Amino acid sequence: MSLKKINPIKTKSWSKLKAHFNEIENKEIKDLLSTRSNPSCFSLGWNDFNIDISKNRIDNTTLNLLLDLAKECGLEDAISKQFQGNIINETEKRAVLHTAIRTDGNEKINVDGLNVVPSILETRSKIKSFTNDIISGNLKGDTGKPFTDVVNIGIGGSDLGPVMVVEALKHYSSRLKPHFVSNVDGDHVLEIIKDLNPETTLFIIVSKTFTTQETISNANTIRDWLVSKLNVSAVSKHFAAVSTNLTEIKKFGINQKMVFSMNDWVGGRFSLWSSVGLSISLAVGYENFSKLLSGANKMDKHFQNIEFKNNIPVVLALLSIWYNNFFKCETEAVIPYTQYLSRLPAYLQQAIMESNGKSIDRNGNPVEYQTGNIIWGDTGTNSQHAFFQLIHQGTKLIPCDFIGFKNPLFKENTQHNKLMSNFFAQTEALMMGKSEKTVVEELKKAGLNANEINSLKAFKIFNGNRPTNTLLIDQLSPESLGSLIAMYEHKIFVQGVIWNIYSYDQWGVELGKQLASKVLKEIENKKISDHDSSTNSLLKSYLSN
Ligand code: F6P
Fold first, then answer.
1. What is the rounded average pLDDT for all residues in the chain?
2. CATH 3.40.50.300 fits 8-72+306-432+467-505, yes or no
3. 117 in helix, strand or coil?
4. Rounded to an integer, what is the distance from CA 269 to the centroid of its chain?
5. Among residues 513, 518, 521, 540, which one is catalytic?
6. Rounded to the nearest whole angstrom, what is the distance from the C-alpha of residue 435 to the centroid of ligand 1?
7. How would you classify the pairing of strands 49-52 and 468-475?
8. CATH match for 100-289 among 3.30.43.10, 1.10.10.10, 3.40.50.10490, 2.60.40.790
9. Closest ligand 1 atom to the C-alpha of 158?
10. 268 CA to centre of ligand 1 in angstroms
11. Which atom of ligand 1 is nearest to the CA of 206?
12. Which atom of ligand 1 is nearest the CA belonging to 243?
């Protein structure tokens, strides 16, 4: 059964939200804070997550209307269809079950009438024994030496999730050193392999399709390098592969024991929980990989079972719609206050923008409203010294997620209070701003005269009223990271459901790929065919090199 097709802007709640927006648009968050009838609605506690949404341009009515919108758009039905394995990715005719691969094993999940849980657990146990064999040194390279380095060869969902998690969980590292090769830029792969010892390096080719140009080119380059350094039989000991395309894997010469399958009902950008996460398991050990899955599974249960008003992904998604569709915000920023999450914004860019960057609705018609948020960000405090100027005083309204942790990971860390004081101060500053009166007082105190104050004050005023969500979590652990990622995954789905789009396909990446393969042939044959005048002249210039 497919998802309902409801145009959100034709719903009663949308009309009410529009009218309500006119009332609230110019209100100040700091005033709203004190007038809200039920302040506890603006704080969501769950496990070790404490999510404060009170620094938003909303009141109780906003929240209630947004919750009505979710109901009117059939969200409840959509969630159960997703978890039941219905074909909700209609344009690719697939179920969407990344949630199944983090199952706790106590349920039945049917795809085409077949319970897939046993095969999921089987793959997991293969990941576990492979990980343990590599880390313990039981499984060795071609010359009998234990592996020291692991290179993940993949791109998009076969790279961004694993690389983000491996970086995030660096504190929990195993003895293996992880590396990631993604770009078809040959300099990228050559830069990575130049210092590696072929005798002690394991390569994992990760590609759902096993046809992706970038991944296959990098894999071929690495295989040639390995063969030149060792011998052709080393390929079967130094390469593992993760894919749905078992035929192509075989052609590459990979040993059957080193092959990890994938299911077509797991989308690339949601696949880090599957065998795509093999590099994660190797980098942090299977126990930690398993805790990552369990954290995600807990968030899945929360998302499935908790009423919408206390449902974290639902509420965050609704707030995002509020800013995107009513305040017409173009972008959202994600600011983690831990260096370990430096790759989170890049990961979320694919997850969010490849999913919801759509302009055709589920009826096949062009949408009449804005979809897909543009996501960007970087870690605090680095970003404070980079782009925060624009968030504080620029002309654009940029809702931000601030993610922070109560406890640091190193016992010896004496700087955590400094980090976290910035975390709290920034959201307060963004909300409160600084009034003309305060600016003038400060300048007077600093000894400036009236003329100097008059010419300077406008530049020093902060209008404030800039919305933020604060996600305060006990500690960055495999489990809390799993929950955090799953939270964003579900937020994406909720937004897609309400925008009446298909979040799980990605046709928009095809055109450029097709054209690139045509252009490549022309470059190789040094024969340019019929492009537009701009592209023709650029290609001519490239070929004249
Ligand atoms: O960029 C498009 C895309 O299809 C992503 O959705 C996917 O994660 C990536 O390419 C890699 O695909 P594959 O795993 O098949 O190599």
1. 97
2. no
3. helix
4. 8
5. 513
6. 49
7. antiparallel
8. 3.40.50.10490
9. 14
10. 6
11. 14
12. 14
Distance from residue 155's CA to the centre of ligand 1 (Å): 6
**Dihedral sign from CA coordinates of 422, 424, 427, 433:** negative
- 513 in active site: yes
Q: Whole-model pTM? A: 0.97
Beta strand extents in 190-229 (DSSP E only): 201-206
Give 11-55 pLDDT, tens digit per residue: 999 999 999 999 999 999 999 998 888 888 899 999 999 999 999
Annotation marks residue 385 as catalytic: yes
Q: Is 368 a catalytic residue?
A: no
Residue 311: is its pLDDT beyond 90? yes
Q: Which residues of 471-508 are buried (b: 16+ CB within 10 A; e: fewer)?
A: bbbeebbbbbbbbbbbbbbbbbbbbbbbbbbbbbbbee
Query: pLDDT tens, 197-247?
Result: 999 999 999 999 999 999 999 999 999 999 999 999 999 999 999 999 989
Q: Which of 93, 328, 385, 526 is catalytic?
A: 385
Domain boundaries, the chain: 8-72+306-432+467-505, 100-289, 510-543
- By percentage, how much of the chain surpasses pLDDT 70? 100
Is the preceding omega at residue 381 within 30 degrees of 0, hence cis? yes
Q: Choose which residue among 209, 358, 511 to substitute to test ligand 1 binding: the one with the highest number of ligand atoms within 8 A of its C-beta.
A: 209
| Mean predicted confidence (pLDDT) in 93-121 | 95
Relative orientation angle of helices 286-305 and 75-84, to the nearest 10 degrees: 140
Residue of the CA atom closest to atom 13 of ligand 1:
207
Q: How far is the CA of 62 from the centre of ligand 1 (A)?
A: 38
- Domains 8-72+306-432+467-505 and 100-289 are alike in CATH topology: yes
Give the residues surrounding ligand 1 with Cβ less than 6 Å away: 155-158, 207-209, 212, 215, 268-269, 354, 506, 509
State how far the Cα of 239 lies from the Cα of 195, in Å rounded to an integer. 18
